[in-house]
Specification:
The complex is a heterotrimer. Chain A is mostly helical. Chain A is built from 17 helices and no strands. The two termini of chain A are 13 Å apart. Chain B folds into 2 domains: 43-164 and 344-437, 3-Layer(aba) Sandwich (D-Maltodextrin-Binding Protein, domain 2); 169-339 and 457-516, Periplasmic binding protein-like II (D-Maltodextrin-Binding Protein, domain 2, 3-Layer(aba) Sandwich). The longest helix of chain B is centred in the C-terminal third of the chain and has 30 residues, at 487-516. In chain B, 51% of the residues are buried. Classes of the chains: A mainly alpha, B alpha/beta, C mainly alpha.
Chain lengths: 322, 517, 290
């Protein structure tokens, strides 16, 4: 970091020391073109992101539609209590959410990176392009559509996947009906749907690596594996770290659409997550307040996690979010 | 101060903008549409519906009704699935439609009534302005007004769907029945078991492979329908309240009848005559498996699904399968029962502003009477203009080729389409009616309906989602043998009662006794 | 570079693996295409659908002959093209200052923006806002409220940050101001990431439906996804008033759904291959040297 222009901790210092104030003003003036660019963006945020924030109070109110948000009565933590203590299974549901989400992160997060590296290794550029264009296709089908297709492909009696499993001499597996395999099925099918789409950002990062670096490495006698380890990975690491920090914010999002379309009572015990539970409970009512409360709960945790990962990443010498 | 403009100024700007805009949001001055000041000018009626959204305003049906009743109609088009969100933001901004033709439940009604969204209208007034319609509705179900009654007031015009009371009926693959030596569908549980066994073991499709099952069940999405024919044979619907032999209100899930049905289903599952993949089957899979000659029996259809143009009938015919409707099979007590959802539906709601606007209220009721019970009114709102958008063929209106309902505004303005007994003649051909009568008028058949159908229960709003989940999970396990039906059932029953079931039963008992007394 | 024997084997294995992967990935597409061209009975057959055993074009004829699908198509193209361009420009304007390490209070501004990823006011305040701004039933509602994706902007910021400072310094010596640097130097150097974000934005616009449902009543301004939802979720074509003449439609429920879906998905799927030229290795460095 450049010590001369370091403003990182200036925010608080400014108000106390007038001498610094003049300096700050100078810095702002120096950056006037940057602020010319930034101001419209900040105004957009003020209007579309900050102005509606007063709606958060609904989490602590009983929304009375005719009286509006401001005039609805306060109820304190009633909705949170309902969420945490109403269902005998709440902590099981929370655990399911975190466990499934955790699997999505440890298996689903690296998958597109690996695929991007592999695609990057293909030497025939036509084939490379076709592979990219085909692997991202499943992204364009919603889970409503894919669930029907998966049911056919994964059927223990007629599905092609189990046909292959039986060819190898194993017993067929009821991927969608057996609680022991259901989470595996969720994670695998999510990878199937999103892996190709996920590679795109990494391919963009890979295309920024200078060929000079590889040439130098070849001179030093590095083979492809070493080149990947020594050049490719470090080059895309900043993007990977950024994506990872942002991904940790999704710890309580375990894939509502996917689960809603794939689960059944037989697999509730391993797959019922926060969102599906609220969906079933909320169906009864006009639950604006409950939904707001759930959203607030999820986002507080997400925000905390992101701050934590960001802190760790910076400690490890990586570029963080802020 | 001036020097900090860049930093503090921006923050202040953002806060100011926030306050400004949020201030606007908090107070909404606009009220429901249509406060006609000039008495001669046509009053504006706002109609909201989450079905049949017209493609454009001022379509044929809209203009027809506007002229006929000297009104101005404002269309509020909701999407079928997200209408609750749409209505929510609309209500929050102070606009309440006059006619609220949405798929609201009784629970919604209670909430809307409590929050002052919908109008209460006296039964007498509705009867006065809609005499023919109310007579029709009461003819289908004398309890028709119950669904709309809450806090001793009436919250809308009752709606019934007479088909709902005919019940679910089993149907079989005709060719398969012949192949195993049955010339008529099974009549009782033992015969049904025999048929399902032979469908599984005797290669009814003659392809030389063991790739068939007796039936599958709706285990994935609508558990109320899952193996309903078997539960019905024991005289129970596991998701409904019923009156026990001792005069006490019971809930189907935890009755001895349900235990017996589960035991039998487990026996069938173990014997391999029901498709083990029923766990992940919805109605679409049930249809697909029947058409693909994997299963030979269905029980998630009502008569109109089985008729030649119905959900199961049409594709079976297309595939060359003879779909043979059966009768509900007799159970251990020798009686025949069929599960049904009942005819009662939540009523048609009105915006609260109508409570104070007598002229508009009466105008609307008159218009509804017209579209529901007058032949011209009914046909015009649902089919358009004879010769232009539809032709009468053998007494049935048939839309002309290329006519789009949305372009003409069909069905949007008539919340009673298909729900008026006297207008049935325009929907069902004599052949179809004959089909219905043949398969639904069965001697000694008892239709199972919910004792608490369309009844407002506060405990239900609180516990239903949790109890249903509990039940659905146990039922699947009991059938597949993962849980047993002796102690396992007792445990389930205890847990069900503890998790709010007892509270539901108590309230149901109270309501029942109040009705009797 | 002369490929070694080990490299050749690696390439062979890689290609076989990729071909298998592509087959797996291609399946849902082939499946839906096949269903859309099937007769009713064929569409309901269990098992794999690679091609229709009994072909029918009825579903496609029915879908393509509707006028509203073309209106929706036009509006979808509009929001995708205009929305994506506006988003990219706006996000670049935000990302560039935030990527400069010497920007005063950079952390604070970044925090301000990151905060909005996690906290939002919800449905009702947003609706009031849109209403008060007079955006209800206008096509602007497709563009303005979704102008910025914070997620994308943060990624863009990191890519801008990775561009060596010398590039900026040398431009400043030549007398360029920040605006010129951004539009003439930084953005052209960032084509791969801009292509990625454009693709994200375009696909997001193309698939968006909730804003259209909530804010648009006028059918002339509806987008393709609302139409798709009507057909796929509610099977609207199949009304309860179906008389015998309409039963053909009823039987074709699945093929019609599939055809509508393919019609909706195809235009956006073909966008990517056109963007691929920006992903060629060394784009950035190449232009730097030139």
């Amino acid at each position: 970091m450049n010590p001369v222009t370091s403003p990182e901790s200036g925010g608080q210092a400014v108000t106390r020391k007038p001498s610094k104030l003049a300096k700050t003003w100078k810095e702002y003036k120096k950056c006037r073109y940057l602020f010319l660019l930034l101001t419209p963006v900040l105004i957009w945020y003020a209007i579309f992101a900050y102005a509606p924030l007063y709606g958060i109070q609904l989490a602590f109110k009983d929304f009375r539609i005719m009286e509006g948000i401001w005039n609805s009565p306060w109820v304190g933590f009633k909705h949170f209590e309902f969420l945490f203590f109403h269902s005998p299974d709440f902590f099981k549901i929370l655990r399911n959410t975190v466990v499934i989400s955790f699997y999505h992160i440890i298996f689903g997060f690296p998958a597109p990176i690996i695929l991007a590296l592999l695609i990057n290794e293909i030497r025939f550029s036509k084939f490379k392009k076709i592979t990219q264009s085909l692997t991202y296709l499943p992204h364009f089908f919603s889970w409503v559509i894919l669930s029907g297709i998966l049911l056919t492909l994964l059927s223990p009696s007629t599905g092609v996947v189990n046909y292959l499993i039986e060819l190898v001499g194993l017993k067929p597996i009821y991927f969608l009906g057996d609680p022991n395999y259901f989470r595996f099925t969720l994670v695998t099918s999510a990878i199937w749907k999103e892996i190709g789409w996920g590679t795109i950002i990494y391919l963009a990062a890979l295309s920024g690596i200078s060929p000079d670096l590889y040439e130098a490495a070849v001179m030093d006698g590095a083979n492809r594996w070493k080149q990947t380890l020594k050049i490719t990975l470090p080059s895309i690491l900043p993007v990977v770290v950024l994506m990872f920090i942002l991904r940790t914010g999704g710890i309580l999002d375990a894939g509502f659409d996917q689960i809603l379309n794939l689960y059944s009572p037989a697999t509730y015990e391993v797959a019922d997550i926060l969102d599906t539970y609220v969906y079933r409970v909320g169906l009864q009512n006009f639950q604006f307040s409950l939904t707001t409360a759930v959203g607030l709960f999820k986002n507080l945790i997400a925000f905390t996690l992101v701050l934590m990962t960001n802190y760790v990443a910076k400690k490890l010498g990586q570029e963080g979010l802020f | 101060m001036k020097k900090r403009i860049g930093f503090t100024g921006l923050t202040a700007l953002m806060l100011a903008a926030s306050a400004l805009l949020s201030g606007c949001g908090g107070s909404s001055e606009e009220s429901g549409a249509g406060k006609a000041t000039d008495t001669n000018a046509p009053m504006t009626v706002t109609i909201a519906n989450n079905w049949g959204a017209p493609e454009a305003d001022n379509n044929f049906v809209q203009k027809y009704l506007e002229q006929k009743f000297n009104i101005k109609i404002k269309n509020v088009k909701f999407e079928t699935e997200t209408w609750k969100e749409q209505l929510g933001v609309m209500l929050a901004s102070g606009d309440i439609p006059d006619i609220l033709a949405v798929d609201g439940t009784v629970g919604d009604m209670v909430q809307w009534a409590d929050q002052g969204v919908i109008a209460n209208i006296s039964v007498d007034e509705i009867k006065q302005y809609m005499p023919k319609y109310t007579a029709d509705v009461e003819g289908v179900d004398p309890k028709a007004w119950e669904a709309g009654s809450y806090n001793d007031k009436n919250w809308g015009v009752p709606k019934v769907w007479s088909n709902g009371s005919t019940g679910f009926m089993p149907a079989y693959n005709g060719q398969w029945l012949k192949a195993i030596g049955y010339d008529q569908p099974p009549q009782n549980l033992n015969e049904l078991e025999d048929v399902l066994t032979k469908f599984t073991l005797e290669d009814p499709d003659g392809n030389g492979k063991k790739d068939t099952y007796g039936m599958t069940g709706r285990g994935k999405d609508a558990q109320t329908q899952m193996f309903n024919s078997v539960f019905a044979a024991y005289g129970v619907n596991p998701y409904q309240f019923k009156l026990g032999k001792d005069g006490k209100v019971e809930y189907g899930a935890v009755t001895e009848e349900a235990r017996a049905a589960l035991t039998l289903l487990n026996k069938w599952y173990t014997a391999g005559i029901i498709d083990p993949e029923f766990i992940t089957d919805g109605n679409g899979e049930i249809q697909t498996k029947f058409i693909s000659l994997r299963t030979g029996m269905l029980d998630t259809g009502m008569w109109h699904h089985l008729y030649k143009d119905g959900y199961f009938g049409l594709v079976s015919a297309d595939k060359g399968i003879e779909l043979v409707p059966g009768t509900p099979v007799a159970g251990p007590d020798g009686q025949k029962y069929a599960m049904s959802n009942g005819a009662l539906q939540p009523p048609l709601f009105f915006g609260v502003q109508l409570e104070k606007d007598e002229a508009k209220r009466q105008k609307i009721l008159e218009m509804l009477e017209y579209v529901a019970t007058d032949d011209t009114g009914y046909l015009t709102t649902l089919f358009g203009e004879e010769g232009q958008s539809y032709d009468m063929q053998d007494g049935l209106p048939v839309l002309k080729e290329g006519i789009k309902a949305a372009e003409w505004g069909l069905s949007f303005y008539n919340p009673f389409g298909g729900k008026v007994q006297a207008m049935e003649k325009y929907h069902f051909s004599p052949d179809k009616i004959a089909f219905r009568d043949k398969y639904t008028n069965i001697d000694g058949l008892t239709i199972l309906t919910d004792l608490m159908q369309s009844t407002v229960m506060s405990t239900k709003a609180q516990y239903e989602a949790i109890l249903t989940t509990l039940q659905a999970q146990y039922y699947i396990k009991a059938i597949t043998g993962e849980a047993n039906t002796d102690k396992g059932f007792d445990d389930f029953k205890a847990q069900w009662l503890n998790s709010g079931g007892q509270a539901e039963l108590d309230e149901a008992q109270q309501i029942y006794e109040a009705r009797q007394g | 570079m002369k490929p070694t024997r080990g490299n050749q084997i690696f390439q062979a294995v890689l290609i076989v693996f990729m071909i298998l992967l592509c087959i797996v990935m291609l399946y849902p597409f082939v499946h839906m295409l096949s269903i859309s061209l099937s007769t009713p009975a064929e569409s309901l057959r269990t098992g794999i659908h690679l091609y229709p055993r009994e072909v029918s074009f009825y579903a496609w004829e029915r879908v393509l002959s509707r006028s509203d699908i073309w209106i929706g198509f036009g509006n979808s193209v509009f929001r995708t093209v205009v929305g994506t361009i506006c988003s990219i420009v706006f996000m670049s304007m935000g990302a560039y200052p935030l990527s400069r390490k010497y920007l005063p209070h950079r952390s604070f501004f970044t925090m301000l923006i990151v905060f909005t990823m996690f906290f939002s006011g919800g449905l009702i305040p947003t609706y009031f806002l849109i209403k008060n701004l007079g955006l209800i039933d206008t096509r602007l509602v497709y563009i303005i409220p979704g102008l910025i994706s914070t997620f994308s902007m943060l990624i863009l910021r990191n890519f801008f940050q990775a561009i060596p400072e010398e590039v900026e310094d040398s431009a400043k010596i030549d007398g360029a101001n920040d605006l010129q640097i951004l539009f003439r130097i930084i953005m052209p150097l960032s084509l791969p990431v801009l292509a990625t974000l454009s693709l994200w934005s375009a696909v997001g616009h193309w698939n968006a439906w909730f804003d259209a449902v909530l804010y648009i009543q006028d059918p002339a301004k509806q987008v393709l996804t609302t139409f798709l939802r009507r057909v796929v979720i509610t099977g609207e074509d199949v009304s309860i008033f179906s008389s015998d003449s309409q039963s053909a439609v009823l039987g074709y429920a699945e093929p019609i759904k599939a055809a509508t879906l393919m019609f909706t998905a195809l235009p956006i799927i073909v966008v990517y291959p056109f963007l691929q030229k920006y992903f060629v290795k060394g784009t950035m460095v190449g232009s730097l040297k030139g």
